[in-house]
Amino acid sequence: MSDIIRRDPRAEWIMRNRLHPLHDQYVSQEEGGEVRGPSGLIRKFPHKVGFIGPNGIKRIDRLKGNSSAPQGRRSSAAQEVQLPLHTVANPDYYIMVAADMVGGRLTSHDKDILGLAHKLIAEEGGNGAVVAVCFGEVKEEHFDTAGADRVLHIEGEEFEGYAPEARMQALAQVESQYTVKHWLFPDSIHGGCDLASRLAARLGERPATQAWQVNAEQAVSRGASASLDITRKTPKILMLLEECADAIDETRHEATPLTLETFSVAAPTITDQGLMDVDPNAIPLGEAEFILSAGNGIHNWDQFHEAAKVLGATEGASRVAVDDGFMPRFRQVGATGTWVTARVYVAVGISGAIQHMQGIGQVDKVVAINTDAGCDMVKRAALSVIGDSEEILAELMKLVAEHKQTSLSDQAEENSNAA
Amino acid sequence: MPHKVVSLISVGRHPQSGRSRRAEQDSRAVELGLKLAGTDLDVVHAGNTEEPTLRQYAGMGLPSVTVLEQDEKADAVESLQSYLQSEKVDIVLTGVRAESGESSGMTPYLLAESLGWPMVSRVADIVEVKDGEAQVLLALPRGQRRQVTVKLPFIASIDNAAQAARQSAFGPGLRAKMEAQQGSESVDEIRLNWEEVPAKARPKRLKVVKAKTAADRFKAATAKPQGGSGKVMKNESVEEKAKAIFDLLVEEKVIR
After folding, report:
1. A55 and A93: one domain?
2. Rounded Cα gap, residues A255 and A238, in angstroms
3. Per the structure, how many domains does chain A have?
4. What is the chain B residue with the closest CA to A348?
5. What's the pLDDT band for A36 if we cut at 50, 70, 90?
6. Are A93 and A172 contained in the same domain?
């Protein structure tokens, strides 16, 4: 049942119409209707005047006396809203969107660009379709609501991992196989910019980089380290900044798969050796993924540093810990220090001053270890543990050490099995 | 055999004052070049010999700077390409994006395409050059690094994650020689048609509530941020508390 209040116009009409045969019945149903005082005057109960309208606002019907709340509220069951399906049959041209697909899913940047692609088709007219081009493992399930009319998933071992050359050749093959009107790329550090530049160099097109305001005729892009706005004719290849357009949210799209003819990929000149182990404390605090942060509640600093090392976390600190000289100034998190973007933030002994909470505004998951259950950090945290930080950190380190031991022995077993 | 390393430099722009300066990434490219080749490093600029910023680069300990003399409107890629073809170059280092002009970051890609060399972007460090191959560290988001092997000769664009440039010394910078060569004269025709104005601030995206009814709009406008605090563990044992934190860290994949 939905909680939308529905008016019953018929009941209201009967209430207003004193000559209606059902009028008395309706009025008597209602509580606190007409009350006559000792002298025979009609007394009004001011709190009962008016009724709550369908949009939640109190309404007073002054047309016919003090008409009161409608009778017989009807309410309909909430329905799952099915967005209208946008179909494109036999498109004349395509707009290719090479999505970043960080972690196999469309980023919000990708979705904005899919929205822009539809905007371009609407302005240019004709029967155009938006294609989401993606490589590698794809976990995205909502290409349809993101605005992809077609999905071109280019699979193959040679495109896995870091393979910009092979991917560029695949895109060049797409260009020769389909009628492509525009290539849209996210101008991001996740590979979109690199791939777009390679494709532009291969096709001999001059791209618009850092474009942020694009329509069918003109593209405005940033230049000279974002101090210039360059307006030019919209080129074929565009690298777009974030929030260049609004994502699709009112239509559903077909997301039918497209295929790419097989072609031969030239031997790569760049070979991927995999990710390196990075010292977590060498990562700048602002872009660290996992931060273990210390505040006034820490007394055993050696243990804290040890814990950060065992967990593989970047160290952070609150202002108090820095002012007291336990941590260097560049480790400070908060309004005066660094505004962090971590995914997981473990706050040990930090009660959560507002300046500190500003600094962790973009953090996904906060874990608080504190002795005070009523502090602000506990209110913000996804998981709060109330207790002595020293004991909990010691126990946590023990668990992580065990975990590493077992995963190492698992690996060793696998290796011996393989051998 | 020492390898021939070339660093390409451009005139930078200070983000606040707008004055010309050493470009951040280009000076890192010079720094990396000095690490790889010492003073044998060849530093090349396409533009004006009289440009005072070049002295700031030279002050990093360069005996000379090669300048391919050309007009401001001329295309730098052509002259750089013919220069690189004439010299026997192994490694070319550039910044990711210039701080002046179009700053499209296409120069290394266009050079790589026309020379037929591999191009690696966003390099944090070149670890080793051996047997016609180089071990290169790429800078990824969130401070991560990826190691790749590239065949020589190649072009690398240097990320801000590379080692910061050393201080520039004024005197040696003044004494450095500017070796001028003739650059290209072909004018970048496409760019002449562009309209360039100082950048205006981008509008911030507003949170638009697409509510069908006024009640929904009212709810959206007055809704408090989700204050539903998470799980609080108070009376459990220390082991259970630590286990809960550990499980969350494993679930979020920050402990591997």
Report:
1. no
2. 22
3. 3
4. B245
5. low
6. yes
In-domain check, residue A214: yes
From edge to edge, which strands make up the β-sheet containing A344-348? A314-317, A290-294, A344-348, A365-370, A383-386, B231-233
CA B100 – CA A123 distance, rounded (Å):
32
Count contacts between A and B (CB, < 8 Å). Answer: 231
> Is A309 domain-assigned?
yes
pLDDT score, position B207: 73
B-facing residues of A in 271-300 (CB < 8 A) are: 271-276, 278, 282-284, 287-290
Angle at B176 between CA B171 and CA B178, to 5 degrees: 140
Compute the nearest-CA separation of B20 from chain A (Å).
11
Q: Which of A226, A257, A288 is the last residue of a domain?
A: A257
pLDDT in tens, A182-232: 999 999 888 889 999 999 999 888 899 999 889 888 999 988 888 888 999
Domain match, A68 and A106 both: no
Q: Based on the domain organization, do A188 and A287 belong to the same domain?
A: no
Please state the rounded mean pLDDT for residues B64-74.
87
B13 and chain A: CB distance < 8 Å anywhere?
Answer: yes
> What value, to the nearest 5°, has the Cα angle with vertex A254 and ends A248 and A255?
85
Q: What is the ipTM of this complex?
A: 0.86
Domains assigned to chain B: 5-192 (3.40.50.620)
Minimal Cβ distance to A231: which of B102, B195, B202: B195
Same domain, A65 and A98: no
Q: Which residue of A has its CA nearest to B120?
A: A270
The domain containing residue A380 runs over which residues?
Answer: 280-401
Task: Confirm or reject contact between B251 and chain A (CB < 8 A).
Answer: no
Percentage of chain A with pLDDT > 70? 89
Q: How far apart are CA B134 and CA B132, in angstroms?
A: 7
Q: State the CB neighbour count (10 A cutoff) for residue B211.
A: 14
Question: In this complex, is the C-beta atom of B256 within 8 Å of any C-beta atom belonging to chain A?
Answer: yes
